[in-house]
Specification:
5 strands, 257 residues, D-Amino Acid Oxidase, Chain A, domain 2, 10% strand, 7 helices, 5-stranded antiparallel β-sheet, alpha+beta
C-alpha cells in the first residue's frame, strides 16, 4: 500500500463542480470570457487559471447545457486548485479543508462578485468537491512496461482496466481510455469475437488541429477571427501563398476559408 505521506503538499488534489440555479454569477463570467454562458457556444475554451489566487485556482465553463438533463436556468462551472498547501484569499483555509460552499465562495471572490453577495450566491448553488490524491500521476513520464497490459500474458481470469492499464495509442485522462480497456478485458477473457473501437488516428495529422481551430473559435474562418491588423496581413499573405495548393483544399475542408 502506498502511503499518503508521499503526496506533495502543494499539489492538485481537489476539484469541484458547481451548479448555479440563477444568473447572478453570469455577468462576472461574461466580463472575463466576453461570452454569454447560455449562448450555446464554447465559453472558456478550456481551463482558465487565476494567477493571483493562493490556490492557483482554475475554472472551466464548457458549452451549456453541459449535461443532457440540465435545466435551462442552470449553469455548470468546474473549478480546481493546483496548490493545496496555502489558505485561500477569501476563505482562510486550505482547499482540501473546505466545504463545497467555501470553494464556491473563493471562486466568486476571484471572479469579482461583491463580498456582501458571495455567501448568498454560494449557498444557493450546489457545489460538489472531489478529492483526487493521485490525479497528477496520470501525467508522469512512463515507458512501455511501466503499466500492466489489460490482459497480462497467460492470464485467463485477471485483467486490468482504467487509465493505469496499458493499451495501444490511447491517451490517459479520458473516459474513452477506461471504456476501451474494459472492452478489451471482456472481449479477450470471454473470447468475444468483436473488435474494440480503434483510437482516433489524429497523430501527426494537421486536419484535426485545423478543425479544432475552427470549432474552438465558435466556427469562425481565419479572416473572421479577432485578429490585430498585422495578424490579418500575415493571414492574408498566407492564404495568397497557398492558393491552388493542397493546403488550400485542407483549409477549405476544415472550414477555415
Amino acid at each position: 500500500m502506498v502511503s499518503l505521506r508521499y503526496i506533495p503538499a502543494a499539489n492538485w488534489v481537489i476539484s469541484a463542480t458547481t451548479t448555479f440555479t440563477d444568473d447572478r454569477v453570469v455577468p462576472y463570467i461574461e466580463r472575463i470570457t466576453k461570452k454569454d454562458p447560455h449562448s450555446g457556444q464554447l465559453v472558456t475554451s478550456g481551463p482558465v487559471s487565476i494567477r493571483d489566487s493562493n490556490w492557483l485556482m482554475g475554472l472551466t465553463v464548457s458549452r451549456q447545457p453541459h449535461f443532457a438533463q440540465q435545466k435551462p436556468n442552470e449553469l455548470v462551472v468546474w473549478t480546481y486548485g493546483l496548490f493545496s498547501d496555502l489558505p485561500g484569499n477569501y476563505v482562510q483555509k486550505k482547499i482540501a479543508d473546505c466545504s463545497g460552499i467555501e470553494i464556491c465562495e473563493e471562486f466568486l471572490y476571484h471572479v469579482g462578485v461583491p463580498e456582501d453577495q458571495i455567501e448568498d450566491i454560494a449557498r444557493s448553488a450546489n457545489t460538489i468537491p472531489a478529492h483526487m490524491p493521485y490525479i497528477t500521476s496520470y501525467f508522469m513520464p512512463r515507458q512501455a512496461g511501466d503499466r500492466p497490459l489489460v490482459v497480462p500474458a497467460g492470464s485467463t481470469n485477471l485483467a486490468f482496466i482504467g487509465n493505469f492499464a496499458e493499451t495501444k495509442r490511447d491517451t490517459v485522462f479520458t473516459t474513452e481510455f477506461s471504456v476501451r480497456t474494459a472492452m478489451e478485458a471482456v472481449y479477450q477473457l470471454l473470447d468475444v469475437d468483436r473488435g474494440v473501437p480503434e483510437v482516433f488516428d489524429s497523430s501527426f495529422d494537421i486536419r484535426p488541429i485545423l478543425s479544432s481551430v475552427y470549432y474552438l473559435n465558435d466556427e469562425k474562418s481565419l479572416l473572421e477571427l479577432p485578429l490585430t491588423p498585422p495578424e490579418k496581413i500575415v493571414v492574408q499573405r498566407l492564404l495568397k501563398h497557398v492558393k491552388g495548393t493542397y493546403l488550400e483544399e485542407i483549409l477549405k475542408d476544415q472550414k477555415l476559408i
